[in-house]
Every structure is written in C-alpha cells, then in structure tokens.
Write a structure and sequence with these properties.
Elements: H1 3-19, H2 28-35, H3 39-46, H4 50-63, H5 79-85, H6 87-99, H7 114-124, H8 130-153, H9 160-176, H10 180-191
Length: 194
C-alpha cells in the first residue's frame, strides 16, 4: 500500500482511535458520565464511530506494521504509551501539572493506562476543578497525539518546548471559545503561585 493511502486511512481513523483506547468503542453516555465531560467536548473529537473504525483499523494494521514510539524510540507504540507511558508524555504532563501546582496528578511510571490515570486524577482533584481538569486532559492528550502524527507523517522532531507552546496557545483559544472551567483551573492554580 502506498504511503499516501496510509496517510488517508490514518487521517480518517486517528480521531476515532484517539478516544477508543484498548480497541473498545466508548459507550458514549457511560464514559461521558464517568469523565464528567459534555458530549460537545468529546463528540467533536470522536468523529466516525465503530462502523468506520472496524474496517479502517484492519487496513491500517496491514499498511503500518507495529513500530517503536516516535517520541522515545524505545517502546512499542501504543495509545497508552504515547499518552502516559512514554518519558516524553510524562515530561509534558509534569511541566503542565507542576506549573499548575498539581504535582500529585503527574503520571508515574506505574501508570500504564491513560483512562485509569485520568480517573485517578479526578479522585485527587477538588470537585470544583474536575471539569477544568477534564478539559485540560482532553486538550493535552489531543495535542500530544497530533504532535505524534507530525513526527510520523511530516517527519517533525519530537519537541517538548514546541508541544508546550501549542498547548498553551490552545488553552487560550479554548478559553476564548467558552471553556470556562478550564480557565478557572488555570487561573486558580496559577494564583496559588502569587
């Protein structure tokens, strides 16, 4: 299969695969309720659902054999590794959560499942900050996934400063677009430093 075909297939399923870790399609109401997210926050990321995923995932597996992580080049690339297991991802989370005075939420080396780490973070954060935390997790995970795509398909180099800059810009854009709980999380956490 040609590289252009692989890119096309990847573009069609990457959004859907992003939220369907462990090859389980989210039952939207249950997962949204668990994560405290609104359908708008998640549905714009999910795109195509199970029908499209089944066929295109098989094609992608044929076209792209398992490869090493584009960030660390040490472990097998999986969505879990990309989002919390990789040292690159943990550095991103550390930089962001440390700046927000939330170091207890940084994924550890024992955190191997993104959804488990996310749920654990929700239990550790005050109730009034949980929706903002959910928005932050979605934003950081999505931008990390997009950075991974740039490394693979555009041959970009993994860059923590570049990714942190993009995440900071997106936080501002999300705030302007109405992500008030995210803005509250950022403002409240940053005001602790003053």
């Amino acid at each position: 299969m040609e590289i252009n075909s692989v890119r096309y297939i990847h573009q069609q399923i990457s959004v859907c695969c992003f939220l369907c870790w462990d090859h389980q399609i989210c039952t939207m109401e249950k997962d949204l309720e668990e994560l405290g997210s609104t359908p708008v926050q998640v549905l714009h990321l999910v795109g195509y659902q199970q029908l499209m995923l089944d066929n295109k995932t098989d094609l992608l597996k044929e076209a792209c054999p398992t490869q090493a992580c584009p960030f660390c080049d040490k472990e097998e690339e999986t969505i879990q590794h990309i989002l919390v297991g990789c040292v690159f991802a943990r550095q991103i989370w550390f930089s962001i959560l440390q700046a927000l005075h939330l170091p207890a939420l940084v994924p550890s080396t024992s955190d191997t499942k993104f959804s488990s780490w996310w749920r654990k973070g929700l239990r550790l954060i005050p109730k009034d900050l949980q929706k903002g935390f959910n928005s932050l997790v979605i934003l950081v995970a999505w931008e990390t996934w997009k950075h991974r795509n740039s490394c693979i398909f555009k041959h970009a180099r993994p860059s923590i400063p570049d990714l942190l800059r993009v995440i900071a810009d997106e936080c501002s854009f999300w705030g302007l677009a109405g992500a008030s709980k995210l803005q509250e999380l950022l403002a409240r956490s940053l005001s602790l430093a003053a």
